[in-house]
Amino acid sequence: MKQTQHNFPYKWTLKDAIFTKNKGKVFSCFACGGGSTMGYKLAGFDVLGCNEIDPKMIEAYKANHNPKYAYLEPIQTFKLRTDLPDELYNLDILDGSPPCSSFSMSGNRENDWGKEKKFKEGQAEQVLDTLFFDFIDLAKKLQPKIIIAENVKGLLLGNAINYVKKIYEEFDKAGYYCQHWLLDASKMGVPQRRERVFFISLRKDLAKSFLYQQDIFTINPKLELNFNEKKIIYKEFKTVELGKKLTEETINYWNNRNCGDADFSNIILRMTGKQKQWNRKFIYDDMIPLTITAGGYLPVRYDEPFEISNDEIKMIGTYPMDYNFCKNRIEYLVGMSVPPVMTAQIAKQVYEQWLSKI
Fold first, then answer.
1. More confident: 148 or 358
2. Fold (CATH) for 25-231+334-357
3. Which of 50, 100, 259, 326 is catalytic?
4. Which of 84, 128, 193, 330 is deepest in the core (most CB within 10 A)?
């Protein structure tokens, strides 16, 4: 498989990767299995460790990253610690992806805001829509040079915009200038349509390093995030290996597909008069794969009655081919994570435009 030239490869391995660790120090919160951590490493950063609430996730994190520091606990208690090492008070980047299902367009949104929910079996109940502010509390304590926080597109829609305003207010109180971007992974060298919001904040006392380069009325130093890499369609990385075969019932639906069907719902409507399985999507050779989600169905090949393969899931998520998933479902961990290449692209620009000039 020959990959088109990109800043970072979507098919790669941990054993062959060269992590220079010369661009700065990073610590990751809500780290999951380390999707963003791998991105920072690809961009040349030294990731010191993580904070994560899920024991299965941190097990995978440790198995693949061997972190210097790993804290298995809720961020609500982690932010109150008085025994954190000095290195965490001298970070270049504090990274975090606060759980965001309360704002997802596929969830209950406003009906869940302010309620305690379990993010996954085995975890403590938390009010998910306040975790972002716990993360900002930690940033206020550690005072990293830069903070990078990722969240779902739904945060920018409807009544959630008031939440965004509050995020800006809290970053300002913590001593940071904040900006945000809605980025599509498919334009960043990732073979997946995945839109995510990134909040990137610079500590105010460092802003003076840039003001001489800009308009005298500019307070917040600008960061340009334009990637526009060549989009990657399915046939470029399609494997001979097949994924899970469809059930007999589902194959019956598959046999009645029409070219252009996006999912199974219209097939079932034509056959039964009922509509279901909207989330069981087709994947065509000439299309960019849709977002891999932590739950629900995997994409189904239009030309064969099989789901996509495990190796294809890894490449769609830009996870290394030799990643140790430690008994976690591959699609769950990939779906929960920021694609490493997406983070690497952002980290590269943050270093070149900001950190290298401070």
1. 148
2. Rossmann fold (3.40.50)
3. 100
4. 128
